[in-house]
Design a protein that fits this description.
With about 270 residues, the chain is α/β, with parallel strands linked by helices. It has a domain of about 150 residues: Vaccinia Virus protein VP39 (Rossmann fold, 3-Layer(aba) Sandwich), CATH 3.40.50.150. Helix content is about 30%, strand content about 20%. The chain has seven helices and eight strands.
């Protein structure tokens, strides 16, 4: 199925320059079964200045956030991960054109992959400064809830990959998805400004045994839940300024947002 994003023109994702190429991300090794860390690699090395601050966006869509924010933060590297191949190619093509025509956005790379799998099997510990999760697919049918990004395993993998003090920043327009997210956050995050629950929490799956053991071993919860401060790229009245947000605002939808900050002593 094609979404026609190129409007009849071929998309050039510039593999090896913007899009991550197979040479840069080879298949998982056979040893992954016995050694879960054997597939790890450092994605910061995909950038011209790997020592720079590293931010990652899950579900970059058409690339609005990457295009806007990366131009304002040339001192930071941005990796956008998008599961849908045509959208990943479209975003990479947008970045390529800006690199070639304006010599900007050299700090952006795009990966067509499953972000949760990338975090679990590929990403090393404590390398990400900020992870952005904006308007992810709500997967509203109960049988599809397992496909939602926020899961106990994913929250563990994000915690492991964030630097101490690093942030997971979440925005959604979907109230049921936000309740799902909060039900997970209750296990993972302390909330210094907690008030009586105003949003009913749905029943969620129990954590995997390894995650249960991890949570039980800690004296404090892994994250702190804090308020959301909009990025510099967001326009007046916007939270983030993505294509989805602008579309949903026209439709009159409301939004939910929050930040999980990894405790510095983690």
């Amino acid at each position: 199925m094609s979404f026609g994003l190129g409007h009849g023109n071929p998309l050039d994702p510039a593999p090896g320059v913007v899009a991550i190429s197979p040479d840069e991300l080879p298949p998982l090794p056979d040893t992954i079964i016995d050694d879960p860390e054997s597939g790890r690699l450092d994605p910061r090395q995909w950038f011209k200045s790997p020592e720079n601050r590293f931010e990652l966006e899950i579900g970059s869509g058409k690339g609005a956030f990457l295009v806007q924010q990366a131009e304002l933060q040339p001192e930071a590297n941005f990796l956008g991960i998008e599961w849908a191949g045509e959208f990943a190619a479209y975003t990479a093509d947008r970045i390529r054109r800006r690199q070639e025509n304006a010599n900007t956005h050299t700090n952006v790379r795009v990966l067509n992959s499953d972000a949760a799998q990338f975090l679990q099997w590929r990403c090393p510990d404590a390398i990400i400064d900020v992870l952005h999760l904006y308007f992810s697919d709500p997967w509203p049918k109960s049988r599809h809830h397992k496909k939602r990004v926020i899961q106990h395993q994913t929250l563990f993998d994000i915690w492991r990959c964030l630097k101490p003090g690093g942030e997971l920043r979440v925005v959604t327009d979907h109230d049921d998805l936000w309740a799902w997210d909060l039900a997970h956050f209750d296990h993972w995050a302390s909330d210094p400004d907690a008030e009586p629950l105003e949003i009913a929490r749905p029943k969620i799956p129990a954590p995997p045994s390894t995650v249960t053991a991890f949570l039980a071993s800690r004296e404090t919860k892994p994250y702190e839940l804090t308020g959301f401060d909009k990025p510099e790229s967001a326009g007046e009245g916007e939270l983030v300024g993505t294509n989805f947000e602008r579309k949903f605002r026209i439709e009159g939808r409301s939004f939910n947002a929050g930040v999980l900050r990894k405790h510095c002593e983690s």
